[in-house]
Fold this protein.
Amino acid sequence: MFHSPQLKSAKYDKNYYDFSDSFSEIEKFLKSGDFVIGNFESSSNINRSFSGYPTFNTPPIVFKNLKDAGFDALSTANNHALDTSIKGIITTTNAIKNAGLISFGTGYEKSKIVEVKGIKIALFSYSYGYNGLENSLNAGEKELINFLDEKQIQNDINFAKENGADFIIIYPHWGAEYKSKASEFQKKLAKKMVEFGADIVIGNHPHVVQEILWHKSKDHIGFIAFSCGNFISNQRLETMQNIKTEQSVAFEIIISKNQNKTTISDIFFHPLWVNPVFEDGKKVVKVFLAKDILEKETSINFLAKDPKNRANQAYQMTKKALNF
C-alpha cells in the first residue's frame, strides 16, 4: 500500500509518478520466481485525486512498476478496494490488466485459472468487508466484489476443480490489525478452506506478520499463512510506534506435479524489512531482503540510525512470529 509520503516521493512533476525505486533492492529476488503474487491494498482511479490514508488512490503507473519488478498477479479484494467507489474497482482492475498483470478478487473477472509450467493454478481472493462502502452498492454492483463467505468459497473451489485446476490458492483479507496472532475465526475458516480443497491460503490485513499452519484434509495437506505483514508502506517504528509494521515476509513455494497429483514440495521464507532511504534528494520508502542488509556492505543512506540492527530485528522477529 502507498501512503501520502510515498506518493510525494514518487511524484516527479504534475502528471508523472514513478515507484520503481521502491522495489529496486528486491527486484532480482522477485524475478527469480516463476510466478509472483502480491496483495494490492488500494484503488487506482485517474478520475480522482491521488491520495493515501484513509482513502487510498494510487497512480496506475504503479502497476507497470510492479510488473517490471517481477510481479505476475495481484489480489484486489480488501477493505480499501472501494476507496474510489465502484468505478474505482473497474479502473483498478483494468489498469492492472493493461500493465500485463493478472487481477483477481474484484471486477468482472473475480477469479483466474492460470497455467504456469504445465500446472493450472486457480486464484481466489476475498475480503471481510470494504470499510462499510459496500452498503451503498446495489445488487449488480456487489457482483464486482468478493466477501469471505464460506459457501461461496466452497462453490468457487468446486468450480475450479471442475474446470481443470491442479492447484488452488486463496488470498483472504481478514483478522485484526496489528495483532501478531491469528484469531479463532481466521483459524477455523482457513482450515475449512483447505478441507474444501485449497492448497495455499495467504492472508493479509493485520499489517504485521502472523503465524503459519499446515492443515491436513482427507486428501491433501494445505499451507496457511495468516498474515504477511507490510510488503511496502509508510508504516514503521517511527510512524506507528510499532516495529512490527516495518517487517514482512515473502514465501518461496515449490510446487510439483507428478502423475496428475500436484503438491507443495518445499517452502522457504524470506524476512523483509521496509524503511526509507535518502536518495537523490528524496526520502524513498524501499523494501529489502533483511538478509541482504545483514550480509552485505552497503552505502545506502538509511533513515534508521542502526539499519543492521533493525534488519536483524526484522529477520529474527519474523522467524519467531511464523514459528516456522
Notes: Residues 307-322 form the longest helix (16 residues). Residues 127 and 147 are 5 Å apart (CA to CA).
